[in-house]
Every structure is written in structure tokens, then in C-alpha cells.
User: Fold this.
Amino acid sequence: MIHHCCRSSYFPREHYSVPENNRIPHLLSCNSPTRFTSRRFESIKPDKQLDYVNDNGGPQEYIDIVLSSLRSDTVKLRHAKKLQMFDLRRFMILSAVRETVLNFPGGIVKFTQELKFLSESTERIPCYRVLDDRGQLLSNNCMQIDKNIALKMYKDMVMLQTMDAIFYEAQRQGRISFYVTSIGEEAINIASAAALTIDDFVFPQYREAGVQLWRGFTLQDFADQCFGNTLDNGKGRQMPAHYGSKKHNYITVASTVGTQVLHAVGAAYSLKMEGKDACTITYFGDGGSSTGDFHAALNFAAVMEAPVILFCRNNGWAISTPVTDQFRSDGVVVRGQAYGVRSIRVDGNDALAVFNAVQVARKIAINESKPVLIEALTYRAGHHSTSDDSSKYRPIKDIEWWRLAQDPVARFRKWLEGDDWWDSQAESELREATRKEVLHAIQVAEKIEKPGLHEIFSDVYDVPPSNLSHQENSLREAVKKHQQDYPPDVPF
Amino acid sequence: MATSIIQGMGLATGFSPANYRIAHPVSCRSLPGLYFLDFCLLLPLELQFAIIILFSKVALCSVHESNFSERRVSSFVIRSDGSLLSALNGGKNRRGELTTNAVGAKQEKEAPSTASSPGHEVLLFEALREGLEEEMDRDPNVCVMGEDVGHYGGSYKVTKGLATKYGDLRVLDTPIAENSFTGMAIGAAMTGLRPIVEGMNMGFLLLAFNQISNNCGMLHYTSGGQFKIPIVIRGPGGVGKQLGAEHSQRLESYFQSIPGIQMVACSTPYNAKGLMKAAIRSDNPVILFEHVLLYNLKERIPDEEYVLNLEEAEIVRKGEHATILTYSRMRYHVMQAAKTLVNKGYDPEVIDIRSLKPFDLHTIGNSVKKTHRVLIVEECMRTGGIGASLTASINENFHDYLDAPIVCLSSQDVPTPYAGVLEEWTVVQPAQIVAAFEQLCR
Assistant:
């Protein structure tokens, strides 16, 4: 079906090699301009392409489709095809077909006499899962995962859980001003990160600290960002838990909801132009899927065939808004089909299911250069943030049940123990060591000094313009004059 | 005759065109522009001889300076009363310009071009396209995205022919979602591309406000300088000819507060191309404001490559009585008013501020210190427009030099009506400018 439209050169990425260390787009290594979509018509001849009653008989694919749908039809038609009497065949097709299909803009559409509306609710899309609640493999298919990776996954999940608990307490004690936990979503965080490579760009929302943990962001780095000291990558400019690290390809968290989905699509577009063996992944929640940016991003990704994984953490709550008030579709996974994006629903509390799904999604994204939508069903077992008390809008027993009975960390541990890769002694040692590490990191970070006054004005632009230098001088003078009114521990 | 003598001398002195070529483009904040000398053929003969004599004097001292690695500028001012002033300016980054005419200049010939280099005539949208094409040739990371920019060539034909040349991945047609393709461009910029986002009309970029303000302007800062966003957002804005209220907006007033972005407004083919190139090379997010009615302006621009400074203002006409600050389309209304004013005996200094954020307070300040009176002519609304900020800025910094309160002429705080006459009345007209100037100089 492709041969008709690709008169111009369309180079699929695997047909030539791009130098590994150069970010030269494949544009430079071919003589003619890149055509990234195989279905693009030459815009100089729009009318002729769309009209099926033209001299060369219309698009071949059209005739094939029509023929295939009329295969059971008249003998004359078959006869005409055998004899390859093109004109007669065309005549037969046109007369028979004129009433059955029409080549509308966008493709051939079959007509129907039934006045039937598509139902607004269908049976819920099933959810992919590998381990059951007790950590047993469901099917007999061997779970292919390296032991070291599985162990690292578990350790990082425990680390994330411990970190969340202790940092949350630190906020309650007044040591940091704000924190966001990922309780209940440890599997999503770690398993999805484990299925990607370091070259894949991550565009997080704010509940994905585990992804960065997997990639090598240390506990000290996390603590430094939360305390906003001089060692923070962000130089103390963002709220706690708004991590970002260029060397880990983890784009800084912005507080705006849903904007990162578009950035991920744009970055995927940039990767596609360079022909890199990498994709982008972006995370958002059920609430984030209502934003305009999400819909446009999904649409764009499909149209541009961008290698992006859109990962929805459907945890049931958007602060206090339950999903029943958020959308009436069957979650987020059905939206994929609406936009022409392949999608899957997975059990977000099953680390292995998430791992498998993201691994395959990554292959699809890169090899086929297509977006993939993954909806991970889970439960936000913690509060939205430290500024929220979720017992105000949901029953405590629900929270407790999900937190204990559906704990993804416990489930994964049971599977590890079932394979004799883990035991209770290793568990207690790990918990003990992790707790100590986190506490130590906090203590160290607390003592490090905060960024100086100059950091208010740097990085607004690449080089501070005159008006900002002027403002910095005014501020310095003001602080010098009234030192008692300004915080004493901020370096000058 | 005068020109031929000058031409002959031009080659012998250091003022030949080759010396005006920038050795290599430097992507730092202050990029000096090219220097041109223009000799008005309409001057009386005595004046022309005076120029020749002056030139010969200068030629004798500078003929040994064959190597112009450091740029030196001579600015000659021919005043309306016929006397000559010359100032030899040794500053590396300051750009002086010779007034084209004693009388208020003709609309088209704003950027003077040297007589010895032919240059080529272009319309403003072609100049933008030239700048865009040169940058896309130079750097494979530069790409364009917007509605109808690809095969259609753009609504104002700025990107015509680029899709066939570079492919539809580098000149990307997007669905109708401004917030979305701006967001996409930001994401692409953070991972290495240099996208240029075209808004079909600046007014549509209101839909992209979230991305521009929260992400474009802020991400470099909040990420601690780790991720840079070298994006250019451009499009036509301003009041057109009966385009209706929604398509006649002045977005510069809404965007001017956003920290982290730079704003420039082009007004002639010469500065359109130079600013486009500078904006693309800048590592900061830059919003380039074009005007719907200026796309068909014709001008002769140099053949050589040139890049202008994003933060500099352009002195269109030197004068002594009062400074008129303006930008974009209002520049032409001002120059028309200047013609009338000169006939009446006034001497306005006209500055096209070009850089809307940050203001070029150096040029503006020097002008205020000289003339002591300021008239601002803008197309923005009265409330919260560029004029309002500029008034505050000048009052704050140069209060002691002002002899009169700053007068700011702007559009009324109304949506632009569709009816032609009504629309005309919402835009500042030359007659109003003349009246305000006379009032100011009383």
C-alpha cells in the first residue's frame, strides 16, 4: 500500500547509519528532503489525488480495498480482473461501488443503512498483570528479567518508600517546606525506569522521583533539592520535589499540570530528526489527562509519529477529585484509540507488568516511530502532598486497604522471595541501612548553606542584561543598609 | 559627480564594503551591526563638496588602517540647516547611522546602503525568509513549526519554499493548537533543537501564554541553568486593515512582564532580517514581533551576511528638539509626521526602539540627555502597554534631564473595531503626532 505515495525518497531510519557521536539529522545524509510520513500527498495536485474518477483509475489502494470487499460479487468482476481489462473493471467497480463506499478526505469510508450510535460506555478494557496479589506468577510464561536488575528494582523501591516516609516526616517537623510522596506508586516509578535506558528523556509530572533514583540521583541530591541549598542542581529556585538533572536526562519538574506531555512530544520529534536510538517518556495523572495539553499532545504525537511513551498514572484521585468526576470515558486508555495511538492498560502495582509493558512500548516507539499510551491503574495511597489531608474526602479504611493489601513493594518482595532471590534477613538489613542513609542525607543537607543573592538574577537569561544587573545592585544596597531585616544565613 | 568621487575614494579608504563584513558570526549578546554611509544626492553642491573635502581629510588619516579587525565608525550628521557635524566614534559596539535626508526620510529607504555595494531589493517577508533560510543552512538544528508553514508556505509567505528545500520534518505543519506546538517547541529546544514557532497571528499566541510564561521563560531559571530554551516565537501582530478585534492585538503589552524572555520588534526589511538571525542565534527565548501591514515594504538590503544586536535601538533621524520613541508600524507614521514637522521648522529625533524587552536605555538615555523632551508613539493600548513601561523607565532613570513631562500617544483601551474609519481612529495618526510634538516643544 505504500508504493503509490512514496515517489519521493522516504528513508526509514535503519537504511543508513548516523555517526554515533554526531547529532546530525539524517537530513544531511540523504540528497532529498526528509519526508517523515508515508501518506503525504504532493500538495500541488490535491484535486486529482482525491478524485477517484480520474484517468489513471484512481489510487491503487482504493481499487484493492473495493475489490476485496466485492470479492464475492459478480462473475463479470472476477472475469474482468482475470483478463485485466482495466477499463471494464473500473466501470464495474465504479457502478457497483458508488453506492457502498466513498473516498472522503481522510480515507475510504463504508456506508451503512443502520442509524446506530456508538455506545458511550463499553466493557472496561482489561488490565495486564503478571503477578497476583500474593506475588505469584499468573501464567506459566517465564518472566525474563535479570536477577541483578530485579534486585536493584526492589532495593530502589524500598529506598523510595523509606525516602518518602522520612521526608514527609521532615516536612511535618518543619525542616523542609513541602513534599510530594509516591506512596502506592513505587512500582510505576522504578519498574518503568528500569525498562528504559539513560538516553531516553524523562518528562515527569512530580510523582516520579523513583525514576530519577533509578538513574543514579543520590539521596544526597534529593535532600539537597528539598532543602534548596547550594548543591542543588536547581540552585534553590524550585519547590521541593521538583527535581531535575541534565546528566540523567530528567527534565526539571514544572508545577504546571500537563505541560510536560507536550514537551515530551517535542523532544521526541527532535530525537526523530536526529535518528537517535532513544525515545522520550512522560508521566501524568488522571487529572493531568483532562488538560488541553494532553489531548493536543496525543494528537500531535500521532500525526507526527513521534517516538514518545505517554505514561498515565491513573491513581484514582486528582487532589480531591475522584476519577468519576474527572472523566466519563473508560479511564485514559481508550483515548489512545480515539487519537490513533496504540495503548495498553496495566496493573500499576505490579512491578513486572509495568516493566514488561514499558519495555515493549519502548521498542514500538523507537522501531516503528510511533507514540504509545500506557495507563497504569493504581491508587494514590498517600496524600496529594503535604498540603493535603486526604481523609477529608475519602474513607480512611480505603486508604489503609490499598496501602497495605496492595502495596507494590510487598508484592514484588513476595515474588523475589518465591524465587529465593531475597529473604527476611536481607529485608531487615536493607530497611535499616536505607533509613540510616536517608536520615544522614537530611542531616547533611540541612547544614549546607543556601545559594547566594546572585542566584536570584542569574540564569534568567544566558547573560544578565543591564536592567537585571541594575536590580541586583539595588537589592545588594538594600540588604547592606538594612541587614537586620534580611535573613542572616543567606550568603551575600 | 559627487558620488563618483566619493566612490573612488571609498575604495581607497577604509570605508569599502569589505570592511563592513563581520569576520564570523559571534553568538554573544552584543553583536554589532554593519555600518553604512549614505550620501544624499539631493544635497546642494556646496554640501557635496564639503563632504568630499571632509572625506579626503579622513582618508588621509585612515588610509593606513587597511585592517579593520576592530570596527571604527564615523557618523556624519547632515543637519537640516546645512551644517556638517562629524563624530569619530571609537566604540566597538556602538553603531552610528548617517541620516539619509535632511528632510523626513521617505518611507522605504530607512536603512541606508552604501553606493558601492549593489545589495538587492527585497520585501520585508522575503527578508525574513532570507534570514531564516541562511540560519537553517548554517545550523541543521534550526527548524520551523507552525500552522500552514510547510507546503502552504506560511500565511504571509515567510516560509515559502522552505519545506521543499528542507523537508517537512524541519518545516513542520502543526494542528491548530498554539499551546501545544509552543510546548512542543520548548521540549524540542530543551533537547537540542533551535525551533522557530510561527503564530499565524500574534493574537493566537494568547493560547500559548501558559507555555510561554511558565515554561519558556522559567525553565532555564528553575532548572538551575541546566536546560536552555533557544526558541524564537514570531508572528504578525498589530492593527491591520479591518481584520477585526481578535486579529488586531498587540501582544507585546501582555508578554512584556514575563521574566526570562526577550522581545524585539522589526520594522524594515533590513532590521527584520538582522533581528531574525540574531534571535535564532540567541540562546534565550526571543519573541519577534512583526506587523501585518509591513510585510510588503520594499528595501535594498546588503548582499553580505549581517546580524543585528537584539538589545539595540535604531536612530532613524537625528534631531535636537525632542525625541520621538516608537517601534514597528508607528515608525512610519512618525516619519510622516516628522516630514510635516521639519517643514514647520522643528527638528525631531526619531528612535525606533526595536528592543522591547529590555529597553535600550543607553541610546534612549543619550537622546533624552540631548533633547530633554520625549514623545512616545505606540500602537499598544494606553493601559499597560510598552509606552507605559517606557514612560516609567525614562522617568525613573532620566528624570533630571527632562524639561517636560513625557507624552505618550497610544491606542485607546478598546477592542479594535472592524469599520475602517473607526479602526483608523483607534490608531495614532501623523496629525496627532504633529500636534503632540508641537505641544511638547512649546
User: Anything to note?
Assistant: The radius of gyration of chain A is 28 Å. The beta strands of chain A are 101-104, 107-110, 201-203, 280-285, 308-314, 317-318, 321-322, 342-347, 372-377.
